[in-house]
Amino acid sequence: MANNFLNKRWFAWDPSSDTVIALITALIMIGGGYYLMVHLPEGSVIKTVYEFILTFLLVVFPVWWLLWHENGSLKDLGIKKEGIVPSLIISILIAAYFLYYALSTYSFYGTNLIPHFLTNALILWEPFFIFCWLQLRFDKAFGIIPGILLAGISLGAYHIGTYPMAEVVVLALFGILFAAIFRITSNLLIMWPLTWSTSSAVGTLKGGFLLGWNDVIMTSILLLAQIAVIIYTWKKIEKKSK
Fold first, then answer.
1. Overall pTM > 0.85
2. DSSP characters for the chain?
3. Where are the domains of the chain?
4. pLDDT for 71-98, tens place per residue?
């Protein structure tokens, strides 16, 4: 299996400017970036604009930093052909488990679960930010084990104040587990969209959030904007390298 645990160092010490930038973005989220996104007045223009800009930048900034500033490639962000098949198989298995759990536990929501699952499937920023951005930077700087732990802890930490502490710990543990799974192929497909659409759907339901069709529309617009920037940046870099 491509890029498996055995062909990398378990621990390392090779921090760089990438590491510093990744830590800064993690601290911004933990220090209130995510908290504000959740706790600004529901339905307000400020909340809508803030949420769109923040989640847009959580994808666009890493792409800009790696491709333009560091002359890297999309492979450095887990967007690659290598590992597609195992990533797809693993994500289907994970999604099947969480889908069964959600439908059996929250069946009383009925058809309202459809937009909830769709919204979570369209959310690119969170798995991309945690695994493709933070984890791969921490992995490179500190090794496999620290990369997995730091990514998982970051996922839990920026939910402080939004979930009870017991749930924050659970989120961190799930983050560590998912980071270990992501590290099998280091391919975005192993986490998104299937794994995230179901696991995040369960997590948000546990937190008391039920997402509707308005969320589907907003998240679709955001995703299209993010994909457009990724493609545009990739094309510009290709053109520049010729």
1. yes
2. -TT-GGGS-SS-----HHHHHHHHHHHHIIIIIHHHHHHSPTT-HHHHHHHHHHHHHHHHHHHHIIIIIS---GGGGT-SSTTHHHHHHHHHHHHHHHHHHHHHHSGGGGGGHHHHHHHHHH--HHHIIIIIIIIHHHHHHH-HHHHHHHHHHHHHHTTBTTB-HHHHHHHHHHHHHHHHHHHHH--GGGTTTHHHHHHHHHHHHHTT----HHHHHHHHHHHHHHHHHHHHHHHHHHHHH-
3. 15-241
4. 899 999 999 999 999 999 999 999 999 9
